[in-house]
Amino acid sequence: MCTKYLSPDDAAIERYWQVRPGQAWPMKSMFPRALGPFIRRVAAGSSNIRECVIGQWGLIPSFAKEPKVPYSTFNARFEELSDKASYRTPWARGQRCIIPAESFDEPNWETGRNLWWTFTRNDGTPWGLAGLWNTWVDRSTGEIHESYTMLTVNADAHPLLRRMHKPDPKYGPDEQDKRSVVAIEPSDVELWLCGERDEVRKLVAPPAMDVLDGACASNGIR
User: What does DSSP assign to residue 13?
Assistant: First the structure.
């Protein structure tokens, strides 16, 4: 589960994804329910292929009665997208998005206490993290709320990311289901945004070790 990441500025988003956010957002340090940018495919008939939208990090399902959902929807397990009521409709409709991130943070409990690690790309470019988006309309006011969720995938076999998160004492070392964000490489962005569901499944994996740079942000120990 990811609960912290750093958003690039609008110039970096335009430089790396050829699209500019339509509005500013309050903070670059992102946390659940904050407003942040995400990139999605534009509806058919538009001259543009992509657009950058500012929305809430925490997907508002279409069936929600109000924009503040009482349960967590900022992360979505990829394995459960077709079953979970909050995500199955956006997943079925192909409402996939890219979440720009300079870095993302994960907790490491190997010392017995939480030490945050920060993960960047070793080539200095931003991450394009996989997500789903939804548009929710308040029926009483007509107000439109954009929102998104960040996908996660099992990372038990990843050499570095399997070390993140607090172990669950109810399960053994090989039964933990450690989670990771899903990084979409630049060459795969169009496929992720526009491809069929069976095509994009092959893109769903933790970040590859050859692009991942992680360091303990708490004390500088790598």
Answer: H
